[in-house]
Amino acid sequence: MANKNISVHTFGATIGTVLIISSKNIAMKNDNKLAFATRAIHSSYDSSTAEGALNPPIHMSSTYSFESVEQGAARFAGQDSGHFYSRISNPTQDILERRLADLEEGEAAVATASGMGAISATLWTILAPGDHVLVDQTVYGCTFSLLEHGLKKFGVEVSYIDFTDHNQVLQGLRHNTKIVYFESPVNPTMRIIDICAIASIVKSHHSDARVVVDNTYSTPALQRPLTLGADIVIHSLTKYLGGHGDLIAGAVVGSSAMMEEIRLTGLKDMTGAVIAPLSAFLVLRGIKTLELRMEKHCKNAQQIAQWLIQHEAVRQVYYPGLSSDPGHSVAASQMRLFGGMVAFELKDGFDGAVKMLNGLTLIKRAVSLGDSETLIQHPASMTHSTYTSEQQAAHGISRSLIRISAGLESAEDILADLERALEK
Ligand code: PLP
Prior knowledge:
- By secondary structure, the chain is an alpha/beta fold.
- The chain has 14 helices and 14 strands.
- About 35% of the residues lie in helices and about 15% in strands.
- The strands form three sheets. Strands 3-9-8-7-6-4-5 form a seven-stranded mixed beta sheet, sandwiched between helices. It has a five-stranded mixed beta sheet with strand order 10-11-14-13-12. Strands 1-2 form a two-stranded antiparallel ribbon.
- Helix 7 links the parallel strand 6 and strand 7.
- The longest helix is centred in the C-terminal third of the chain and has 20 residues.
- The protein is globular.
- The termini are far apart.
- The chain binds pyridoxal-5'-phosphate (PLP).
- Pyridoxal-5'-phosphate binds next to helix 4.
């Protein structure tokens, strides 16, 4: 990694000498490694350990026998790395974790039962009463709910600011800030947050706080926050990494020491949100085609966004792949492609949105994202209904916003369905 110390003057005022990590780091192929697509298929699994089976075995075992009492005790004490109980680790989960760490360029990973399991295990591990979390103004609905109804109840301070305004981030840091948390692109508004700039501000002004990025929307095929200065990456594997809408799973990626702490505290004791071996296997299968699928998702999303923006019924389109989008240049610097998610608003507002969604036939009215099927939903009444309507207004979630997850169908068929629904 080509890191360098430079003075930054980009926030209206000099904020001092900060660590800037060159955008060259997001080059998609490490010089000394196999390419991403190759590692997505081969990394961390040696078929000779499983009688040559091309795909890893699904280890359906809740417990593991010890050769001796001493070995069992050593495993519990962390002196012997073998498995001992599947709430902590499992051989199929192990392969998935090593592959995810490789693809995100982290030291280690912890796979979990869901994306919320990953977020909860991370936050509960790191935070204590009296600590502060600085959060972007908009995050996934259940993340918001966890912060508002979970952490605040246990004495954690939470504040929300607009992370695209770097001065606000600088002002928002407190002596007790332990986590700086955001998504990019943001669900559901598609705002783009400059990961490198946020990490630089936090690192140079508050070394104690960890920068946590939910990378669900981008996946490591498009964006690798750890190479841009983030400390921890979160995933809902339910989405693009699983890729087929047939499982719920999550993961955290970061340093070995942090992952060990999350595994032994947040996962083992505080949430118990362990991934099922079958889900771990299915995610490994999904990851094999991740790069290929992401390219098609992104291509379809770009076509949908460009088609929507010229449509007379459409008021606004939010997609970083549009050169007119406020996040376009930052997205271009930190993402390989612009992602498979698009948001938009109709001139007819909420009523128009309801009519349009009900008029679709091919596109499915459903939450979640990253599946083969194109999915459409209304965040204010669905994924982000955990915010009250006052909170939605304050956190930038418009009632007329519609969110599309571009699937893998032919773009022509997706656009034809949208056209028919808009005509109605
Ligand atoms: N993070 C983001 C950005 C999401 O969109 C979601 C779910 O939609 C989650 C986390 C939670 O993931 P899961 O549903 O797997 O718990």
